[in-house]
Structures are given as C-alpha cells and as structure tokens.
Amino acid sequence: MNTFDSMSDKQDDQLAARLGKKKRLAWDASSTQKKDEDLDKPLPKGVVLDKDGKPCRLCTSVASWRALTKQASSASSSSNTSSSSSPTLSPPSLSDNNASSIPGANDDDCPPDVEALGRSTWTFLHSLTAAYPPRATSEQQLEMHSFLKLFSRLYPCWVCADDFRAWMNQSGGRNEPRLSGRSEFGTWMCEAHNAVNRKLGKKEFDCRFWEERWRTGWKDGRCD
Question: Segment Disordered: which positions (predicted)?
Fold first, then answer.
C-alpha cells in the first residue's frame, strides 16, 4: 500500500466518524426534544401535585390517577419504540397468571385515593366525637385541641389539610373547635364535614342527627 492509499483510507475513516457523530447528535437532539414534549404535556384533570412537584396519590382520585399512569405508560412506550427496535421486557402485571400468585389481589389492596382516604378519615373523626365525654375536663379539651391542630398539619392530603386548617382559623373565630362536651363537639365536626361537602358540591347532612348517625344508631332500629 502506498502513502496515497494510506492517506485516503484515513480520510475516509475520519469522514465516516464525523458523519456518525453528526447522526448521534441529531438522534440525541431528537430524543431530548421528545422527552421535553412529554414533560410539557398537561396532567390529566384532577391530578394534584405534592409539595415536591410530583403527583400526590393521596390527593388525587383513583380515576385521575389511572389517567396519569396511562399517560405515562403511553409516553414510555412511545419513547422505547423510537429509541430502540430491540425487544424489551415488561414489568410483571396482575393480569392473567400473575394475579394468582398474589393472595387476595384486588382493587381494595391498592393505596387509597383522596376519596377513600376522606371517607375513612371522616368515619374516624365522627367516631372520635361519639366517644368524647358528655362534659370534658380542661385537660381533655386541651388534648383534643392539640390533636386537631396536629391533624390539620399531618393529614396525608396536604391540600385537604390546608383547607381544614384555614377553615378552623377563619377570622372571627366562628370555626374554632368547640370542645366543652360531646354534643357541642359532635355538632362542630358535622359542620366541618358539611363545609367540605359544600366545596365538593355534595349534599349536606342535617347536623341535628349526627348522634344517631355516628353514636346511637337510627331510632327506626335499622342499625340494631
């Protein structure tokens, strides 16, 4: 091989390397643009972001959460298809034969959404008022006041917690916890629940009957 042939081969290799680099850069730019487009897609209606900017499962309804996971799955599939033609392994699914390997697998085993969490919480709170003494001591009132204050900060759905805290702290003190005894506390909790019902467009409960609903059972005997 003469010198000319050697130089020609080197030039061809350099040219091929430059072309390959340009193709890779173009591919990387395309992939980045695709990822940016996926990130810019609006979230499904009803999805609430946590304080860290990520979707909050406990703040979101199950319907909205499933729409979000469907959107994410679609974006991931699109990205995998465009980035590689090689087959990929899918994660295990509860469908088909996999479901039988998990005892009792069903929707009730899933993390609660904001509605399930709310129903369970209201059951607990109303039961708390039902167990409250008819006449509370100063110590019992102080303990319950401390609990409600902590509850309004630690409740898993942070937007719900903020709303509850804002309602209790409304100017004029009209919504401050009334804790002198069971009857007063039960009525106050019912009013708090109705404030949420109004916000959600739900039917309000007649607070005159809170004790039948949550403590003694209905007078018609349906709960006996």
Answer: 1-53, 71-113
Q: For residues 174 and 80, give the distance between their C-alpha atoms in angstroms, rounded to a whole number.
A: 56
Distance CA 219, CA 82 (A): 66
Torsion angle, alpha carbons of 213, 218, 222, 224, to 10: 90
pLDDT number for residue 41: 74
How much is the pTM? 0.66
Q: Which segments of the chain are extended strands (E)?
A: none
- Residue 46 confidence class, pLDDT cut points 50, 70, 90: confident
Phi and psi dihedrals of 62, rounded to 5? -65, -35
Number of C-alpha atoms within 13 angstroms, CB side, residue 82?
15
Q: Which fold has domain 114-216?
A: Four Helix Bundle (Hemerythrin (Met), subunit A) (1.20.120)
Residue listed under structure tokens 């309804």: 61
Least confident of 16-20, 57-61, 78-82, 171-175: 16-20
What integer pLDDT is reported at residue 21 of this predicted model? Answer: 53
The residue extents of the domains of the chain are: 114-216
Query: Rounded to an integer, what distance in angstroms lies between the CA atom of residue 192 and that of residue 121?
Result: 13
Contact residues for 186 (Cβ-Cβ < 8 A; gap 6+) = 126, 129, 130, 132, 210, 211, 214, 215
Amino acid in the structure at residue 129? T
